[in-house]
Amino acid sequence: MLAQEGLFTPLNSSPALIVGLGNPGAEYAGHRHNIGFRVVDALAQAHGLRFARLRGTSAHVARGDVCGRPVALAKPQTFMNESGRAVGRVSQVCGVAPSQVLVVLDDLDLPLGRLRLRPDGGSAGHKGMRSIIERLGTQAFPRLRVGIDRPPGRMDPAEYVLLPFAEQELVVVRQVLDHAVSAIECWLAEGIDVAMGRYNPPAPGTGRGQEAGVGPGDAGPSTGEGAQS
């Protein structure tokens, strides 16, 4: 990761909370909907942090320093629709302002391997994000959307997000996890504007955003219904 190469000098020393969204339980671990969990797991592994249940929060939390900043990484142990209950409590216990809460979630409207950072915004129909907005009482917090592709044909999106990645997609998944970790490190150290410029997909007709993501042909690195969406 870029932080391990000593390229980051933090501009902000306030505590940060990085939340990966997903459904708890081994039966959901490989699902597309759980890509947020996988990103924060990869971030924790890159920085030697370990998750444990944090009393009174309904979340597994890992705490330490990343890119020179105190951070908490969280995986809500509620189901997706109730993510806000856990996020609200973790942010209170860890003393993190909403503006320093970065939520990592799956996005059906982005191709697999693509990332999109935003400083704020609505839920775009993602029930986990909707729950967090309701509980924090604001949309003014950053989010990192990780592309999982649209469902094929007329498949119900609620069914699609609860499917595992296909075998041929796993190489891209592994690459985008590394890429997402680097994007989070950049946000922590250099802020949202720099991270957006470096990791968001380029606008049509421009040459910007070369690091925006990976795809099946690259060498480098929601929505849904039902109780678990």
Brief descriptors of the model:
229 residues; alpha/beta; Rossmann fold; 7-stranded mixed beta sheet; 6 helices; 7 strands; 17% strand; globular; disordered N terminus; disordered C terminus
> Care to count the β-strands?
7
Percent helix, as a range, is 25-40%
Elements, N to C (H/E)? EHEEEHEEHEHHH
How many helices in DSSP terms?
Answer: 6
CATH topology: Rossmann fold
Mean pLDDT: 87
Radius of gyration: 16 Å
Multimeric status of the protein: single chain
Low-confidence stretches: 2-8, 206-211, 215-227
Strand content: 15-25%
Q: What is the count of distinct domains?
A: 1
Note down, in words, how this protein is organized.
- By secondary structure, this protein is of the alpha/beta class.
- The protein has one domain: Peptidyl-tRNA hydrolase (Rossmann fold), CATH 3.40.50.1470.
- Helices cover 29% and strands 17% of the residues.
- It contains six helices and seven strands.
- It has helices at residues 35-46, 83-94, 127-136, 157-160, 170-190, 192-199; strands at 16-20, 52-54, 59-66, 69-76, 101-107, 115-118, 143-147.
- It has a seven-stranded mixed sheet with strand order 2-3-4-1-5-7-6, with helices on both faces.
- A hairpin with a 2-residue loop joins β3 and β4 (69-76).
- α1 (35-46) packs across α5, α2 (83-94) crosses α3 and α5 packs antiparallel against α6 (192-199).
- The longest helix has 21 residues, at 170-190.
- The two termini are 31 Å apart.
